């Protein structure tokens, strides 16, 4: 029994150290990736459900690593744990602003770009300054940038969050609340925040049309947002049925595979150009 126990401990330690070493290696590689431009940004189109036009894109990071495209789920948690998320987030915002500006300069009809911001970035006291610097470096009109934050980031210290968010909106950019419905925000608290848009989490969209509870929740969120004067965007829309239900329930915009997957810049431009010609 004793030996088994010791063996178990040894195995466990060995296992831990492999995982720990792998983590150190990944962290190093990710840091180099940011410096060496191995991170690429894809853009997922968003549609206005009233006009039927493309109204924006969301910037989503990917990592070109050892011959494959690594998805954010595989490295964002590590980046958040190690603090690399701040450099990564600035990189993505810089790329996205420059890209959108370049499309505008090339004559593409202007649209917004949504960029994800993580909690660590939001807490960084120099954050607003950095966003301002990125905007002016890209020579981008701030109205085309929307920063996406999540409920958990702003609900613990409401007063401080309102102050930070107001700093950002004072730059002329807009703010969206991402993954809405998955947290525990009281609807009344939402009124306190300078938010332009709620992004309805895809988990509710998935349940349309089979799950009556999901549909009831989605409808309730949509009508509440309307009363508060906040726009709504549904995420993860995968079929016509979902799009029609959401549109009829008053949803303003949609994003999802039914419209398009996240695309590399050249394909996004092609998509938008062809789509607007239809
Ligand atoms: P998110 O912000 O909720 O982004 C939406 C995710 O849903 C994206 O996954 C997108 O590809 C996926 N998606 C879009 N339409 C559909 C659909 O119709 N069906 C399904 N099943 N999925 C759909 P992705 O690109 O893998 O990104 C995952 C998460 O990684 C993002 O979730 C975001 O939280 C994070 N992330 C991505 N880029 C960045 C970044 O630059 N900074 C930070 N902090 N986080 C990022
Ligand atoms: Ca997002
Ligand atoms: Ca989301
Ligand atoms: Ca999400």
**Order of helix and strand elements from N to C terminus:** HEEEHHEHHEHHEHEHHEHEH
Rounded radius of gyration (Å): 21 Å
Tell me which ligands are bound.
Answer: ligand C2E, calcium ion
Percent strand equals: 15-25%
Q: Please report the total strand number as a whole number.
A: 9
End-to-end distance: 73 Å
Low-confidence stretches: none
Give the neighbour order of strands across the main sheet. Answer: 1-2-4-5-6-7-8-9
- Mean pLDDT comes to 93
Helix content: 40-55%
| Category from helices, strands and their pairing | alpha/beta
Q: How many helical elements?
A: 12
**Gross geometry:** globular
Protein name: GGDEF domain-containing protein
Domain EAL: 23-276
Architecture overview:
The longest helix is centred in the first third of the chain and has 34 residues, at 2-35. The chain is α/β, with parallel strands linked by helices. An eight-stranded mixed β-barrel has the order 1-2-4-5-6-7-8-9, surrounded by five helices. The protein has helices at residues 2-35, 76-82, 85-105, 119-123, 127-138, 151-155, 158-170, 187-190, 202-206, 212-228, 240-248, 265-277, and strands spanning 39-48, 54-65, 68-70, 112-116, 145-150, 174-180, 197-200, 231-234, 253-255. Helix 3 (85-105) packs parallel to helix 5. The radius of gyration is 21 Å and the shape is globular. It binds ligand C2E and calcium ion (CA) (3 copies). One calcium ion binds next to strand 6. This is GGDEF domain-containing protein. Residues 23-276 form the EAL domain.
